[in-house]
Amino acid sequence: MNKLPYGQTVRGILYNKNNEILLLKRHPKSRTNPDKWELPGGKVDPEEFFDESLVREFKEETGLTILLGDFYHAIQDDFSHKRTVVIVLEVEIKPNTSEKIVISDEHVDYMWCKPSKLLNNDLSSSLIKLLKNNPKLLFMYK
To answer: Residue 137: is its pLDDT beyond 80?
Structure first.
């Protein structure tokens, strides 16, 4: 039986007007998934609800203020030091707020990617598992 502790993270799927999904590139010195593309989001802090965490993490990582949409999927992502349950929600930019993306120091780049082109990129382990367990994301358009 695996005795590694659990952590919880949240990720958001954000589409732009061209039906592209926002991806962030992790810093090369990141402990997990360095130089990989991922959906915006992050760790749920103790005493924090996962929905509050996603709004906070999105703001910290992208500068965007978001509204939460529907639940999309959940996966487990295992690392050498922990197991993580990843909850993925659909999100949208809150009306009448800035759409300018300002990435945090945790990331080195961002891009908008067509769902059908996601697999052409070096993706994080959680995003690969998400696509493997729920491949409809590759064909979704808003």
So the answer is: no
DSSP 8-state assignment for residue 121? S
In a domain, 141, yes or no: no
* E strand or H helix at 23: strand 21-26
CA–CA gap between residue 33 and residue 29 (Å, rounded): 9
In a domain, 40, yes or no: yes
What whole-number distance in Å separates Cα of residue 10 and Cα of residue 84?
A: 10
> The whole model's pTM is what?
0.92
Q: How many domains, in total, are found in the chain? A: 1
In a domain, 140, yes or no: no
Question: Residue 41 contacts by C-beta under 8 Å, 6 or more apart in sequence?
Answer: 9, 10, 11, 12, 53, 54, 57, 58, 61, 88
For the record, the structure tokens of 38 come out as: 């991922």
- Rounded-to-integer distance, Cα 114 and Cα 16, Å: 10
Structure-token match 């409809």, residue found: 136
Mean pLDDT to the nearest integer, 38-67: 97
